[in-house]
Amino acid sequence: MTALGTITRWVESITPSTPDDDARAAVDELIPVGPELGAYVRRFCALIALSASIASFGLLADSGAVVIGAMLVAPLMTPIMGAAAATVTADNRRLLRALAIIALGTLLAILVGGLMSMLAGGTVVDVRALPQEIRSRTFPGLLDLGIAISAGAAAGYVLPRRSAISALPGVGIAVALVPPLATVGITAELGLSSEARNALLLFVTNLAAIVFAAGIVLLLSGFRPEVRTSRSVLHRRLALTLVLVLLVAIPLTLHTQSVLGDQRLQNAVVRSVEVWDDEVRIVESEVDVAGGRATVELLLVGPGQPRAVWALAEEIRGRFGGPVDLRVLYQGNEVFVVSAR
Amino acid sequence: MKRRLAGLAGVAGVVAVVALIASCSGSSSDGDTDAVTVFGPWVGADADAMADVLDGFDGAEVRYTGSGDFVTDFDVRIGSGLDRPDVALVPQPAIIDELIASGDLVPFSDEVASAVADGFAPGSWDRTEDGFVYVLPYRSNVKSLVWYRPEVFAANGWAVPASMDELEALVTEIQSGSVIVPWCFSIFAGGETGWPATDWIEDLVLRESGPEVYDQWVDGEIDFSDPRIQRVFETFDRLVLAQGRVLGGRSDVLEVEVARAGDGLFTTEPGCAMFKQASFATTWFPDGTSISPGGDVDFFILPDEEPDATPPLLVAGTGAVQLSARPEVDEMMAYLASPEGADAWASRGGYVSARTDVDPDRYYRGVDARFSALLQNAPVTRFDASDQFDSTLREAVLDGITAWIAGRVTLDELLASLDEVAAG
User: Fold this and answer.
1) Domain boundaries, chain A
2) What is the rounded distance in angstroms from the CA atom of residue A169 to the CA atom of residue A164?
3) How many secondary structure helices (H) and strands (E) does chain A include?
4) Of the candidates B1, B10, B65, which has its C-beta nearest A310's C-beta?
5) What are the pLDDT digits (tens) for B133-178?
6) Is the Cα dihedral B322, B328, B334, B336 positive or negative?
7) Is it the case that residue A8 has pLDDT exceeding 50?
8) Contact A326/B14, CB-based, under 8 Å?
9) Residues A143 and A256 sit within 8 Å (Cβ to Cβ)
10) Chain B within 8 Å of A286 (Cβ-Cβ)?
11) Domain-by-domain residue ranges, chain B?
């Protein structure tokens, strides 16, 4: 906390003391106050619902382009940037309002995702049968955290600079907020609770990282609390977002390690098959590392009868360095040439 | 993250193999000549159990590799002479006889030989030639078990049958009065496809024709076409394979892997009422399955012809043999022959043996103590016949029964061809 305090003080000392009025106005306009708020919330809800339904259908149809379209319609970036700005300026009322709107949008997007999944029908027996667009959102790793921090920083940079506003859609695409929520709704409706949790983790990652990174950049741009006594509030808020980022980093690190472990095993398998029989080709492979144990399923194609499969298992065990369960489907290359006249 | 590769048309063979590092270190290279290599038929959870056992040996490093196609793979390893394991866990006495005859086995050290003599009731595993002992009867199985779910039986008003006639009546009742099919059954097991059908035949021979006929049949004194054997095949066909009596019909019998054959017993809406399979099937049951008369699943012994007579018991097992005479291999065999050499597996569960030097009620866990009591108390036990046939006949039996179930040969053709092979 004190370290963060030292850093923010140092940042304050080297940055311009106040942003200009234009920049302040840009930030203030994020979430309107007074009578315009009702209209804003209605517009926000409509756009969230539309964006979430576009995203849901895009996810179910496995169409990346449609999902990107949904990201451009999504209005969630505005309250999230509002939250970041309110954090930095220690404006409690704005912060609470922004958080309430984010919570509303989150719930609505998940509900719409579930509803669309119900409308689309269908059941999923196997997680691997899910469309790629959905699967890719159910196992976030550290790369996703990196994307979210960079994009949050970009958003914080663009926000007070109207001249750079054209970059905002790119930021929205980089950290898609609605598609993970739609994925939560879809996977929950299909009864895939662990996938739903992971998709929610991706959303929370994006949320925490954007608020944190955008907050830091706004701070660098000269945004401060107007009252000096609010500085300790600023430090606490920033520390809170940092703690949230570190918390989500734990499961993300585990996911990343798991992916790297699978990758290492995959390499061991490919090399072992080469050594085992260089005429055999891997058609399909499924590898998984859990608790230090490797589970490998291979579909192999090769000439004639397979060589001893136990020898392949021992080869993989030697390279992987731990217990291996191997299952091989072997397809002999049989060529049939016929003429019918 | 797990998924099974879909079965593809034209796939030549499915080979399941597990390899596990056991004991001291996982990092030394495969070229390490000091490591003791153990080859066996156990994969998956059974391989984990064996690795646990070998971890308890504090001598040389031990590596266990198990293959779902053990018999074929072992044959190649012995035949090529290059990849000979130091120790093999062999599920068929007939293979061991062939290995003794060909001089491939190393007789046990005095220490191991006396441990086997003092601590076991070897029964069908007794292989002592010229004072040399060759087999350690490592693990036993009870084969005559019929698994069922007590709550499903109770809900449908079915009773555990006390005789073969009652079993036939029960099968008819289940088939006619319920969406549940009487039997779960399949025979697909790679190069060993067909063995669960041989178990059925053997159990029925023991019951319909009696242990004397069984012994004569095993010894080749009675033909397969003998009416006392032929009628057993007909009983099996009628009782289990007939239309509507087996889950998934004959195509599932031929295609579903043996380890998944009983899955239909455990589905929320059960697919089948009964699953006849050996004691080792417990490792295939879903995690956390409780086995007791009031639990998720329980068993009865396939009944005798006579009502309420204690039925005969078909048994099988795995014997450990030694293929190299290095001192560290002797040490490891001595470990396997001691009660500690199976302790890790006995505490995990899923293990019984012909060991007489332990208190079964304290040594074994849960249902294993019941299996052990069955092995000790059954008035008539016979060892699996097909495991005692020589490898040529065994292969012909497995292939022939599979072809008969698939409808490619008639029963008469099957029995005649088996007699031809048996006659050499």
Assistant:
1) 2-224, 260-332
2) 11
3) 13, 3
4) B65
5) 999 999 999 999 999 999 999 999 999 999 999 999 999 999 998 8
6) negative
7) yes
8) no
9) yes
10) yes
11) 17-142+316-383, 153-314+387-422
For the domain made up of B153-314+387-422, the CATH class stated in words is alpha beta
Sign of CA dihedral B165, B170, B171, B177: positive
Please tell me the predicted confidence (pLDDT) of residue A125: 56
CATH number of the structural domain A260-332: 3.30.300.10
Query: Which residues of chain A have a CB within 8 Å of the CB of B63?
Result: 314
Find the CB nearest A310 among B5, B8, B17: B17
ipTM of the complex: 0.76
- The interface residues of chain A toward chain B in range 83-142, judged by CB-CB distance below 8 A, are 126-128
B386 vs A246, more confident: B386
Q: Could you say which DSSP state residue B34 is in?
A: T
The CATH topology of domain B17-142+316-383 is: D-Maltodextrin-Binding Protein; domain 2 (3.40.190)
Could you count the other beta carbons within 10 Å of the beta carbon of residue B105? 21
User: A323 and B17 in contact by Cβ < 8 A?
Assistant: no
**pLDDT at res. A122:** 65
Distances (CA, A) of B361 to A243, B138, B371: 54, 18, 11
In chain A, whose CA is at the least distance from the CA of B20? A323
Q: What one-character DSSP code corresponds to residue B291?
A: B
Query: Which of the residues A296, A320, A325, A336 would you substitute to probe the B interface, choosing the one with the greatest number of B C-beta atoms within 10 Å?
Result: A325
Phi/psi at B134 (5° precision)? -115, -20
Q: Helix %, strand %, coil % for chain B, to 5?
A: 45, 15, 40
Chain B residues within 8 A of A317 when measuring between CB atoms: 19-21
